Amino acid sequence: MYMPRRYIVVVLGFFGLLLSVGFRAVFSMVMVYVLREENTGSLLFFKECTINGTKWDLRLDWDVAVSQYFNTMFFLGYVATQLPGGYLAARISSKWVFGTAVLTSSGLLVVLSMTIRLGIPGVFVIRTLQGLAEGVCLPAFNGVISAWAPKSEKTRMVTLAYSGLYLSPAVALFASGATTCYISWHSSLFIYGGLGVVWSIVWVSFVHDTPEMDPNLSPEEKQIYEKEGHQVSASSVQKVKYIPWREMLTSLPLSAIFVGNFCRNWVFAMVVTELPQYYADGYKIDIASIGFLTSLPEILMTIVVVVGGIIFDQLIKSQTISTTTARKVAQCTGFGVESLCIFLLVFVNNHTLAMLLLCLGVGMSGLTISGYQVNPLDLAPQYAHVLTGISRLSCVGAVFSTFVAGYLRQDNLSSWQRIFLIASIIHFLGVVYYGIFASGERQPWADPSKLDTADSKLNLTSYPEYGTSAQSDKISNAAEIDS
Where does the Major facilitator superfamily (MFS) profile domain start and stop, copy by copy (predicted)? Predict the structure, then answer.
C-alpha cells in the first residue's frame, strides 16, 4: 500500500517533535523526583512508588532553584542557535540539520543519566549543549514542511505535524512520572534517548528536503505540486542565496510573530518545565499523579491544535475570511483565554480548580498554531527557515520565564501565584501587539527575483508560490536574474 510521501514527512515530523520537546519534560520530572524532600507525596491516583529505598532510587541534596537554572541554561543555548539553525537549513539541508539535532540531543539525554550523579557542573554543561542542539530543530523542520506543503493542505499539514510538539509534554510528563516512580529514577532518560536515536535514523533514511529530490514521489503527487505552482524536476535544486536581512528585521508583521513567540515560549516553558514543581510545592502531590495532572492540559491543547487547524484551513480555502483575519482570530482567541485562566490561578488554592483552569487555558492556546506558528509560511515561504529562526530568537522568553521561576519560587503556593500573575500580564500584552501588527499576506521583500538557483531553472519546491500559472511563469523568469 502506497503512502503519499508528504504524509510520511508529516508523520515522521510529528514523532520528531514529540520526542525532541519531550526531552525537556522528562528532565523536569526527573528533577522534581530526585530533589524532593521526601520521595513520596499525597497519593491521588496511583499507588506509592515502588522504587523508594531501592537501588533504583536517588535523592540529591541540591537546592530546588538549581533545577530551574538548569532549564535557564538549556533555553540560553536554545536561543543561541535559532538563527544559525534557520541559516544552515536554508543553505545546507533542512532534513539533515533537523535529524542531526535530534540525534545529538538524544545522545546527550542518555549521558545526562550518568552526569546527574557526578554533580551540578556536569548537568549545567549537558543542558546547555542540549539547548544548542535543539535550538535548530524548529527552524529546520519548518524548512522541510514549507517545501512539502501544497497551499490547499498547508495549514492542515503544519498543524498535524506540530501537534506532536504540543502533545509531547503530555506523553513525556505522564510517561516519565510513571517510569520514574515504578522502574527507576533515570529510566525515562534512557527510553527517550534511545527512541530519539532510532527516530533520527528513520528520518534521514526516508525524508528528503523537497519533493523533487524524492525518487519515490508518485506521478499523482507530482501533479499536485505542478497544479499548485511547483516545477518538480530532478535536475534543479534551489538554495536561497540572497536573504533580505534588513527588510526582515524591520518588518512589523514579522515582529508580531516574534512577540507571539516570546509570549508563547514564556508560558510554554512554564507549563513544560515548571508546572510539575508547582504541584509539588503547592499541593505536595506524588510524582506519578503530578505526571497525570500536568499531561491533561497538553492533551486538550493537542486536540484544539488539530481541530483549529482544520477549521481555519477551511475558512481560508472557502474565502470566508482572509488569511490575515484567520491568523489574528486564532492567535488572539487562544492567547486571550489562556491569559485570563493564568490570571485566575493567582486566586486558586486547590489542585482541582487549578487543573481545570490550566486545561481550559492551555487547551485553548492550541488555536495559536493556526496563528503565529503558520505565519512565517504566509509572509515569505521561501525564507521559512530564516523567518522561523528570527522569530524564534524570542525563545529568550523561556529563558526569562525559567529564571523568574527560579528567583521567585519558594516551597509554597503564594510564590507561584506571583509567577502566574507576571505570565498573564505578558500574555495579554502579546495579544494586543499581534492583533495590531500581524499579517497573513506575502511581504514585498519576499521577491522571487532575489532567489538564485544551482542552475537556470527554478525549483519552486522550496518557494511554494501557490496559485496561478502566470505567477509561476513570473517567478521562473525572475530566477534568471543574478541577484
Answer: 8-442
